[in-house]
Design brief:
This is ABM domain-containing protein. Pfam families: ABM (PF03992). InterPro entries: ABM_dom, AI-2_Isomerase_LsrG, Dimeric_a/b-barrel. GO terms for molecular function: catalytic activity. It comes from Marilutibacter maris. The protein has about 110 residues and is an alpha+beta fold. It has a single domain, classed as Alpha-Beta Plaits (2-Layer Sandwich). It contains three helices and four strands; from the N terminus they run βαββααβ. A four-stranded antiparallel beta sheet has the order 2-3-1-4, with no helix packed on it. Strand 2 and strand 3 form a beta hairpin. Helix 1 packs antiparallel against helix 3. The longest helix has 15 residues. The model has no long low-confidence stretch (mean pLDDT about 95).
Length: about 110
């Protein structure tokens, strides 16, 4: 992975009664995202203390947020975006991160 990747960290507070429905929707969109040319990786996590709080950690090979947004205007994303207000407790909390380094276990 490159330190020049575009990295997003997104917090999502899902309505308790919609968690299963949201997980199906987010899994479907991640599967579709993974077919994009500029997609690098995505990790989905659930908070250990709050079962309705999830985070997405996405890496993309894009030169800027603006270019990313232009390229992501696709029907499958629009359908997911349209459903979010009924699935989430409040708007997503996205952040753009600047990669500084990455370490993995050494044997």
């Amino acid at each position: 992975m490159s330190n020049e990747d575009l990295v997003f960290y997104v917090k999502l507070h899902v309505k308790p009664e919609r968690v299963d429905e949201w997980r199906e929707a987010v899994t479907e969109i991640i599967e579709k995202m993974s077919r994009e040319d500029s997609f690098v990786s995505c990790q989905l996590h659930r908070d250990a203390q709050d079962p309705n709080l999830f985070t997405l950690y996405e890496r993309w090979r894009e030169p800027s947020v603006e270019v990313f947004l232009q390229r992501q205007a696709k029907p499958y994303r629009e359908a997911y975006e349209a459903r979010l207000p009924e699935l989430l407790q409040r708007p997503r909390e996205p952040a753009v991160l600047v990669p500084l380094g990455e370490w993995h276990r050494r044997d």
